[in-house]
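User: Fold this; tokens only.

Assistant: Input:
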Amino acid sequence: MSRTLIDISRLGTETSWPAVATEVNGYLQNWLTAANAQVSQHQLRIATAPNPTATATDPCGWRLEATLAQLTPGGDPAVLLLEVFLTGTTLQIKPGIANREPFLGGDDQVSWVYPSGEVGTSSGTWSTTPLPFNAQVGWSLAPGAEYFVFAYSQHRFTNRQAVPLLIARDQVSGHWILAASPPSTTTDAMRAVSWNVRSGQPSGSRTLLRESFTTAVMIRRPAELVLATTDWSYYENANEPAQFWEPLILPSDFAVVNFSSAAMSYFKPADGSEWLAIGGHGLLLRTKDAPAPQGGTGP
């Protein structure tokens, strides 16, 4: 199935986060149903959906869970977690992993584990002042490269651009990646969690892998998420978790530009493809393929 990109931007000033999140959730639910049918060994579900009647002080967003075919050290199916909740003043992103329900409230082997302290909570702000903003929802059900992404730019200020939702198949393991970014371009933040096949442990990410800021503008493919720490133990312990720098690799519809561009900027490299910047962290989404090379005829 071909990829889909929908513009849900608001041009007026009566924008509310609950209304936007509820609209996105409708697209997400439809995509998730189809994705679960294709990827039956790793099942996704919306554990908590956005509250359409949330006020400025109510948390409104998603708790997403992916139950994997892999077993944790406790012998239960691993469950990936992504929580993205916004109020009028804060944004919390919390990716984690578990091997048992219900949530017990601690980082241990029988509860939720957060693969790295740096991959925990991210704070940011959704402005309480209604403003026009750009927002895009995109998805694909290409076998082996399924993804769903939602990004917004409330305006061009650095603290008003984010990717609240990114669900994608890791191109190395085939497992789901659950990720989100805080509304800031000050760091290349992409809080993510997945499962590392080589180590048999959860993996966390906190940055995008891209070229030096001192080079000319470059688009890097494939888009890679840099892993932070992976271990099934307390990250607070003196015995620090092992570090793996094997990146999570996003499907080929994603790329990375080597600077923090304004969200919704458009890039057209020399090969004829076209890319849309989503969030403010240099992550790109392909909107047009490069044209196929024209074959010549010999003499």
